[in-house]
Amino acid sequence: MEEKILKELYLPVIPLRELMIFPNTALNFDVGRAKTVKAVELAMAGDRQIFLATQKDGELESVEFKDLYPFGIIGQIQQVLNLPGNNLRVLVSGIKRGELKSLKEENDSYYG
């Protein structure tokens, strides 16, 4: 039996409002919150990987660790389009499932 190797990653986090993504699927969504836009910019400046976690309450503007479901998806940003009003349209491909162990605010963005 092959052992699974668990690897801890520290990635920018996008809290999704009333959306879900699965491995081996693509999701197109808009982001407009300043911390979420910054998370996309940080991911694009690096290896384009990002962690996507769904919010328990889609109405919340600012989230904490307790406001997100603990399991989400490690995704690869495929495309980013600039929209009016400092909003972005993002196309992400789901890579694999992951668990959010913590959520920190760093560099004006969320990291976990």
What does this protein structure show overall?
This protein is mostly beta strands and 112 residues long. 11% of the residues lie in helices and 43% in strands. The strands form two sheets. Strands 1-3-4-5-2 form a five-stranded mixed β-sheet, covered by helices on one side. Strand 6 and strand 7 (109-111) form a beta hairpin. The longest helix is centred in the middle third of the chain and has 12 residues, at 34-45. It is globular, with a radius of gyration of 13 Å. It starts with 12 loop residues before the first strand and ends with a strand. 23% of the residues are buried. The model has no long low-confidence stretch (mean pLDDT 91).
**What is the straight-line distance between the termini?**
31 Å
Q: Counting H and I runs of at least 4 residues, what is the number of helices?
A: 1
Structural class: mainly beta
Q: What is the helix content?
A: 10-25%
Number of strands: 7
Shape: globular
- Stretches with pLDDT under 50, minimum 5 residues: none
Cα radius of gyration in angstroms: 13 Å
Strands of the widest sheet, in order across it, are: 1-3-4-5-2
What is the average of the pLDDT values? 91
Would you list the SSEs in sequence order as H and E?
EEHEEEEE
- Strand fraction equals 35-45%
Largest sheet: 5 strands, mixed
